[in-house]
């Protein structure tokens, strides 16, 4: 039995976001701290990956354990009310995820799924991101020389 009435539950469910979630923000912070630059929510790629590293051809998804059916110890609870609906909903999400990952791989992209439970300890997340993105541990930051003015790409007229 639900502790909220239908109207309140509907408002709560409507407030759940699909982007800029706490797990996604944790992954973004960790990637940025490593010096990685990325694009967000690329709509032109299958599944609209949460983080895209175009130069590395890596698409990264941050999945919530409940919504995508992860079998971690934290999220084993399933809703008791309307259980058939939730089983079908989560199974549909998992099918959609598999299709998106397969489509990206056939397009030549590497894919990575980071689960919500793995984002709880950023000190463990950073080495994993570093390894996946194939960064050496002591990678120096490459800085482009700062250019300014209208003649930065052309010869100066003297």
What does this structure look like?
This protein has about 160 residues and is α+β, with helices and mostly antiparallel strands. The chain is built from four helices and four strands. The chain has helices at about 5-15, 20-35, 85-105, 120-130, and strands at about 40, 50-55, 60-65, 110-115. A four-stranded mixed β-sheet has the order 1-2-3-4, sandwiched between helices. β2 (about 50-55) and β3 form a beta hairpin. The longest helix is centred in the middle third of the chain and has 24 residues, at about 85-105.
Write out the CATH superfamily name. VSR Endonuclease
- Tell me the number of structural domains: 1
Shape: globular
Question: Residue share in helices?
Answer: 25-40%
CATH class type: Alpha Beta
Structural class: alpha+beta
Distance between the termini: 81 Å
Q: Nearest-angstrom radius of gyration?
A: 21 Å
Count every helix, treating DSSP H or I runs of 4 or more residues as helices.
4
Reading the helices and strands in chain order gives HHEEEHEH
Oligomer type: single chain
Largest sheet: 4 strands, mixed
DSSP E strands, number: 4
> Spatial order of the strands in the main sheet?
1-2-3-4
**CATH topology descriptor:** Endonuclease, Chain A
Low-confidence blocks of residues:
136-141, 152-158
């Amino acid at each position: 039995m639900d502790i909220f009435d239908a109207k309140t539950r509907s408002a709560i469910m409507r407030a759940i976001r699909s982007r800029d979630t706490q797990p996604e923000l944790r992954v973004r912070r960790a990637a940025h701290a490593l010096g990685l630059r990325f694009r967000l929510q690329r709509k032109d790629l299958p599944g609209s990956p949460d983080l895209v590293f175009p130069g590395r051809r890596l698409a990264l998804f941050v999945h919530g354990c409940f919504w995508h059916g992860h079998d971690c110890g934290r999220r084993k609870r399933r809703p008791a009310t309307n259980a058939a609906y939730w089983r079908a909903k989560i199974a549909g999400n998992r099918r959609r995820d598999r299709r998106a990952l397969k489509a990206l791989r056939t397009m030549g992209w590497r894919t990575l799924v980071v689960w919500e439970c793995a984002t709880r300890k950023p000190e463990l997340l950073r080495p994993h991101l570093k390894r996946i993105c194939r960064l050496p541990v002591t990678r120096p930051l490459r800085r482009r020389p700062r250019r300014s003015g209208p003649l930065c790409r052309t010869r100066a007229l003297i």
